[in-house]
């Protein structure tokens, strides 16, 4: 369930999951943007 959460869950959940997984403050804004784009494309 933790292998590919970005393709299974919704964009909103991805944000939360990634935030927790990466530690929150140690996440690069670029990485978050990429995840958001991926999530948007996957969901849309």
UniProtKB/TrEMBL annotation:
This is Phage major capsid protein.
